Amino acid sequence: MELTQTPPLTETAAIEALSTHIYYGNFRAIKDATLSIVPRKITAIIGPSGCGKSTMLRAFNRMNDFVTTCRLEGDILFHGHSIYDASVDPVQLRRLIGMVFQKPNPFPKSIYENVAWGARINGYQGNMDDLVEECLHRAALWDEVKQDLKKSALTLSGGQQQRLCIARVLAVRPEIILMDEPCSALDPIATLKIEDLMRELSENYTIIIVTHNMQQAARASDYTAFFTMDSDRAGVMVEYGLTSQIFTYPHDKRTEDYITGRFG
Question: Could you tell me if 159 and 139 are in contact, meaning their C-beta atoms sit under 8 angstroms apart?
Fold first, then answer.
């Protein structure tokens, strides 16, 4: 099955989890999660440690495939098609649904090559210099590195490295960007830069972010999904809605207790 890009703006969901259960061996990490992600908005997934936030996020681009004991029941639909269908190429899927990890992970290459690498191996035929500049601009990094493109990416600060990783994702033209606690290793100033960047990028991309930082979720996201653990320690989605509603008038007391710091 061919995965196409650029869904129409009228599409109701950028990606959708349907009655999803995720297991590691016999342990159920996610229990019956149904979640429809709104296109070109920022959705935050919050909840206490161990509730399956990152497992849920990685299911959206099949990163869990790298864990041999992991299996999924239910389904996840992208453009109306199951991403777990045997005909789907996971490598192509991850080009359309990119990932930014918790710890910045630039390649031990130049700043330029970090951005160009993914586009090059995917057969990009355009002007590479223009693409690199465009992506660094979009990642709010160009003005800081434009004189140093041949320098090692490892010489950048942590916040700059994370923005470079975002530029690297942008270079392969994704539709969705997954972010797994992208600011947890950054200082407050660098964190705010990433949040501002997310807001700018959400005009053109769907962003799903896992964060343990309640203030960040409240500041940066449009929608919030709250996960917690049930009695057998499986992750369950308690509540999902507009961030303003979740943080002001949560419908479930478990949500209120978590965001007010009573547990978690």
Answer: no
Greatest alpha-carbon pair distance for the chain in Å reads 55
pTM over 0.85: yes
Encode pLDDT of 180-215 as tens digits: 999 998 999 999 999 999 999 999 999 999 999 999
Residue 247: partners with Cβ closer than 8 Å, 6 or more residues away: 214, 217, 218, 224, 259
Other Cβ atoms less than 10 A from the Cβ of 251: the count is 11
Q: Which tokens is 214 given?
A: 């309640």
Task: Give the right CATH number for 15-103+176-259 from 3.90.76.10, 1.10.443.10, 1.10.1060.10, 3.40.50.300.
Answer: 3.40.50.300
Write the DSSP string, 108-157.
SSBHHHHHHHHHHHTT--S-HHHHHHHHHHHTT-HHHHTT-TTSBGGGS-
Report which of 15, 47, 33 is spatially closest to residue 226, judged by C-alpha positions.
47
| Residues 60, 102: Cα–Cα separation, whole Å | 16
